[in-house]
Records
---
Amino acid sequence: MAELSRRQLLGASAGAMLLGAPKLALAASRNQFLAVRIWPAQAYTRITLESTEKINYKYFVLNNPNRIIVDIENANLNNVLNTITQKVQHSDPYIRNIRAGQKDDNTIRIVMELKSNINPQIFNLEPVSNFKHRLVMDLYPANGRVGEDPILALLNDMGVKSPTNTINNSSPYRQTAVPKRSNRRPVIMLDPGHGGEDPGAISPNGLQEKEVVLAIARETKKRLEALGYKVYMTRNEDVFIPLKVRTQKAQHVQADLFVSIHADSVNRPEPRGTGVYVLSERGASSEAARLLADSQNRSDTIGGVKMSNNREVNNVLMDMLQSQTITDSSRLARLVLNQLGKHNKIKNEINLANFVVLRSPDIPSILVETAFLSNPQDEALLRSTSFRKKVAQSIADGMKQYLSAAVLAQR
Ligand SMILES: [Zn+2]
């Protein structure tokens, strides 16, 4: 083994201390590994181990070659964990290979050989939804800066440096007090819901919301770009992005509009149709909308967010901006819904709900529930390329109508 540098030793012990795997609980049941999942992505690669018990662990990072070693207490290798080696894809941006072995009677050691310097974020998730206890290992590119906030790394991977309005700025507002007409290109952020560990809704035939909405968002982007707009996506691969990072990405590129794209699901097959949501200032307009917001906002619980990233600002300016933004959002929602109504039944008029992704105070934001994955007729539509294209065209047409009459904030 290569000689460890002082920094590596410090890093290793600090990691072990910080992560402070609690001392083995007395009479703890032994971990039975239920699943191993790897989500390779450019933004970061996620490895998830799922087990019957809370997974107690320690880890340390080694260089030359770059490796991460994770020791898991109170566990034995089983057939599930043994599959970890073959789950690594050749194309994984960060992992060269992974091995799991029994270190001693009580401990499993996982060795990850890496392709580059990595900033790991390792944390436990409590059971939620269909998931049992999970250990999540997120591998972010280190980018040369030790301890860089992985949220910042996610933002930086947009490849955009906004000159005046970084996310560190305590005042995230653009100068909208006296809007002046501007001829600049409108900037749009498209937000395909869910991704990675969080599949969103799943139809009885196994069609996943995260796949459908990514395909629709890509089609929408093409059409908006053809109209001359600058278009970004919060994700353009199968990766979990925390909800607040989605709105922060929109702030980061100074988006003029934000559209989150989803497909609905309920526990009965009958409901179907398209709906568009805007943020409610005070709770949801209906019980159904509240339930939907709860389920969509649960994404972070399912996908798991480690970092607390609380930059809530609460002042009069925000309230004023927000109510103007909600008015604008409602106008956008109406225009988009009118277009969508040409291709599918309208489930409801404009709905109000308290979605986390709609909370940018200064960016008109809507959430489109394209159709119901839980309804067979809607599911067939969502599966078809032609319907996806129609939805994309509808969203683009609605946005075009909105922007043709909008006064863009000056920058
Ligand atoms: Zn969704």
---
Amino acid sequence: MQKKLLIVGGGYLGAELAKALENDLEVTLVEQRRTFVHAPAMIRAVVKPALLDSALLPYDKLLSKGSVVLGKADSVDEYGATLVDGRRVNADYIVIATGSSNGVAFKPESDNIDDFRTVITGLHAQLKAAKSIAIVGAGTVGTEMAGEINDAMSEKKITLISSESSLFPTMPTKFGASLTSKLKKSGVEIRFGVKVDNLKSLTKPYSGSLHLSDGTLIEADLIIPAIGSRAESSLLESLPNINKEKNGRVKVDSYLRPSTYPNVFAAGDVASNGDAMTIVAIGRQIPWLTKMLKASASGKKLDQLKPYVPWKKAPLFLPLGPNKGNSYLIIATFGNWVTSKIKGKDLFITKYRKLFGLKV
Ligand SMILES: Cc1cc2nc3c(=O)[nH]c(=O)nc-3n(C[C@H](O)[C@H](O)[C@H](O)COP(=O)(O)OP(=O)(O)OC[C@H]3O[C@@H](n4cnc5c(N)ncnc54)[C@H](O)[C@@H]3O)c2cc1C
């Protein structure tokens, strides 16, 4: 008889892992939303809401042998999970992949996808009406957002605010320097080395004024907070001996186990394993999890298998609209052409539509 695998959370980690293992294990994927939200496309969807139709992907055709259960897991233990409505799913292996949340326009606030559509189309209307836009936070999402707005609505005055002294200071200098120069050339103002003292919301766009730590003031018709992801880890609190970090991620051991239960794993944004909170990191975790779970289901002990090793320096693709941007791959920084080919034009929509069994 096939061993049972329960995956909680059908984001990048959960959806792809379920598909990879459905022929080898009896897979159940528990997901609270009716559709998968393809996050990289949401930044462009704010300037081009029609993109929502190709980047919100229903779960019905994802699996052919495994099953997707629509529901929210309330607690998890070494035998399975109990859902909020009382249903129970039992399994031999459990993978928790409940991911993270972000600004309201970048990831849904709740399980209601219609509300999320309304937020994005609402922000699009605000953006069209605004003359000045301030983006607070110059990580990947904030910088891409500046590039997308500038590309689609070049008449807007955009200010990108960073507390760092340069863009992407942990990456090779050329990467951030080239992005800075492209943004500045197209008219985006970047304020480095300043903190906002009076940010009213960490997640919701609003209009008003920003007091910066250098004493200056920015008035903006639209302020977009882009200050990073927070792990959705409350579900893991039902496990013994977990160790949560400040950003909500739960520490896992080198076999991606967050607690003393040997058959319960956690991966993706919710798990702190040395990787960043990215799809690129998940792309490394999925093959390892697939191999490990197959081997374990066929009787191998975990300590006979190689532990997971995180990225040393992960690739990073940062488009500024469909045609511009920079990418870091292995040892070098690439420019507009490579970035556009790999990510800028399609935003990986084709890959995920195929995964979900949808027309491309
Ligand atoms: C705007 C934006 C753009 C991004 N672009 C890129 C990019 O270009 N490249 C890149 O590498 N990374 C990118 N990222 C980061 C990437 O989106 C995350 O790393 C990725 O979403 C993490 O995947 P995950 O499977 O861990 O979690 P998530 O994608 O967050 O999925 C978690 C899933 O679990 C479900 N869930 C949560 N709790 C429960 C529960 N209790 N019961 C049932 N279901 C539950 C949620 O509904 C969700 O579907 C981007 C992030 C944002 C916000």
